Structure formats: structure tokens, C-alpha cells
């Protein structure tokens, strides 16, 4: 387990030192973010201090707040996966001004007809969106969707601000002393786009597809379905036999196992997933799976196309 957690960063740092900046840094951000998922979920070591220290590395490496991420991902997305109005990962506007339509409860407008073409293009802005959204959530809205954000302590606020400033320093200001400003801008954009695409597509292929359930709570705001069953039916796995995706997504291609056992290190997911699959078969629970990443990505594109061109959810007999 430790070989993977230490080995991937080491290789990527070697690429960085070899001045393969745009390749190494983009892969560095995306792969490290996936590998650090285990620390964020307290799945590596039993020391809370280490969890926090490693988690806050995100603040300085990619300028994204670990503090805000905990609320969005751990307190929001995992307990309320794909539940309309609850999961911060699928928050959409109540009006018709959202950039994409991913739920049947959203109002349809004509511009969504071609969303399967233009929406994937803007996924390259995920990194920028996240860094800006951190600021608006912490200082203005004080919530992410319906998940309230508690006021940060002095130390948490210090890390938040320091992370943003350090990111600007080592990604923009220092490079400007070594390279032309245009080269800095181009390399920054390339690296950020690659990292953003890798993370965005990894997550979209797991949850924003038509094959999974899109759950709506009852009028009383309560869910009657079993929690574990919901976790399985609101996620989609892909390429679980692929060494590449097991390593470079942090085993998040085993999304079902990750949602059932977030506190277990991803290194064990390839051994757990077959058990989950057989258990689903035994108890008649639908298990969503695609053989390849591109099939999973295709299901996301098809989902965008369907909800962009259909005003209402088709009714099947």
C-alpha cells in the first residue's frame, strides 16, 4: 500500500525535475488528488493529525481548499449521493440559468439541445471554478448547496489564505522570473486543463449517467430506501480490471466499493469489488458497470444528450 502512496508522487516529481512541466504538473495534480483521497477519507494510518496535514497539502499544491472539500465531499456527496437537492456535487440552479441540465427536475430550455457538445469543453475549467468557489462559499454564501459551512478557526483560515497565495506564487509569480509571461500563461493553462479534465471526467463517468438512480426525497424530506443499496445504484464502476485506471484514478473506477467502504484504503478495492458484485447478484441489487472508461464516458455524453433534447423523462410501460 505504501509503495503506491509514495511511488506515484516520486515518479511525478522526477518528471517535474526533468522540466517536463506541462506533462508532469498536470498529471501530478490529478493523480495526487486521486491518491490523497484515501487520506481525506481517513483510510491511511490511524492518526488524525496526519490526515489533516496531508489533506491540507491540497491547499498548497493546487490552490483548492481541503476545508471546503471536506464539507462538499465527505459531509455532502457521500451521505447523499445523487439525491436531488442534497448532494453538493449535482447542485443545479432552480431557474433556467444553469450551464447544463443533468436532472429531469431541471427546467428545459432550447440551449440544452447541444449541451453534449459544449458542456464537456468547459470541464477544463474545473480547477479554476473550484478555487474561486472556495472563496465565495467560505466568505459569502457560507454553504455548498444545502450543506452549511461552519466558520473556520484561525488556523484553518490561515491555511486557506496561505494555500491560495502559495499557489499563485509558485504557479504564476516565480515562473514569470524564469520564463516569458506568455509561456507561463500557456503552460499554466495546459497543465490546469489536463488536470481538470482528468478529475472531471473520472467523476462524471461514475455518477452523472442515465444508468444510475437519480433519487428524490419524499415530501417530508426523508428517504425510505436502504442507504447501502442507494450507494450501489447511484454509482457506476468501469474498467475495474485495468491496472492503469486502478492506479491513476486512485481506484476511483471502483466507485461502488469506494462509496460502500470509504474508510478502506483504495489499494484493496480490486479485491473487494468482486465480492460486492457477487453480493449484488445474490440479493438482486442492480450493479452498474462499464467494461472501459470510454464506455463510461460515453454514457455520460449520452446522458447529457438525452436530457438536452428531451423535455420530459420518457415513460416506459
UniProtKB/TrEMBL annotation:
GO cellular component terms given for this protein: membrane
Residues annotated as domain Fatty acid desaturase: 27-289
GO molecular function, a single term: oxidoreductase activity, acting on paired donors, with oxidation of a pair of donors resulting in the reduction of molecular oxygen to two molecules of water
One Pfam family per UniProt: FA_desaturase
GO BP terms in the entry: lipid biosynthetic process
InterPro entries linked: FA_desaturase_dom, Fatty_acid_desaturase
Residue ranges that the Swiss-Prot or TrEMBL entry lists as coiled coil: none
Source species, domain of life: Eukaryota
Protein name listed in UniProt: Delta(5) fatty acid desaturase
Species of origin: Stylophora pistillata (Smooth cauliflower coral)
Amino acid at each position: 500500500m505504501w509503495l503506491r502512496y509514495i511511488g506515484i508522487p516520486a515518479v511525478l516529481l522526477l518528471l517535474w525535475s526533468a522540466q517536463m512541466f506541462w506533462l508532469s504538473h498536470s498529471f501530478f495534480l490529478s493523480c495526487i488528488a486521486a491518491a490523497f483521497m484515501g487520506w481525506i477519507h481517513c483510510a491511511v494510518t490511524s492518526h488524525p493529525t496526519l490526515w489533516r496535514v496531508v489533506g491540507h497539502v491540497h491547499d498548497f499544491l493546487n490552490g483548492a481548499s481541503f476545508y471546503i472539500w471536506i464539507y462538499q465531499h465527505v459531509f455532502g456527496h457521500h451521505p447523499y449521493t445523487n439525491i436531488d437537492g442534497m448532494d453538493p456535487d449535482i447542485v443545479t440552479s432552480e431557474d433556467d440559468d444553469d450551464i447544463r441540465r443533468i436532472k429531469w427536475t431541471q427546467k428545459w430550455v432550447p440551449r440544452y439541445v447541444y449541451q453534449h457538445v459544449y458542456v464537456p469543453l468547459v470541464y477544463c475549467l474545473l480547477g479554476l471554478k473550484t478555487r474561486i468557489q472556495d472563496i465565495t462559499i467560505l466568505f459569502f454564501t457560507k454553504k455548498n448547496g444545502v450543506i452549511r459551512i461552519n466558520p473556520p478557526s484561525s488556523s484553518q483560515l490561515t491555511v486557506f489564505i496561505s494555500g491560495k497565495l502559495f499557489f499563485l506564487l509558485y504557479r504564476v509569480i516565480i515562473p514569470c522570473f524564469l520564463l516569458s509571461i506568455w509561456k507561463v500563461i500557456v503552460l499554466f493553462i495546459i497543465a490546469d486543463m489536463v488536470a481538470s479534465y482528468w478529475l472531471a471526467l473520472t467523476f462524471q463517468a461514475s455518477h452523472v449517467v442515465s444508468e444510475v438512480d437519480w433519487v428524490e426525497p419524499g415530501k417530508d424530506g426523508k428517504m425510505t430506501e436502504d442507504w447501502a443499496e442507494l450507494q450501489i445504484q447511484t454509482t457506476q464502476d468501469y474498467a475495474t480490471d485495468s491496472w492503469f485506471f486502478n492506479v491513476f484514478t486512485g481506484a476511483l473506477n471502483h466507485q461502488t466499493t469506494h462509496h460502500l467502504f470509504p474508510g478502506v484504503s483504495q489499494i484493496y478495492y480490486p479485491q473487494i469489488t468482486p465480492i460486492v458484485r457477487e453480493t449484488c447478484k445474490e440479493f438482486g441489487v442492480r450493479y452498474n458497470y462499464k467494461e472501459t472508461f470510454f464506455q463510461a464516458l460515453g454514457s455520460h455524453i449520452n446522458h447529457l444528450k438525452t436530457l438536452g433534447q428531451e423535455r420530459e423523462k420518457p415513460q416506459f410501460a
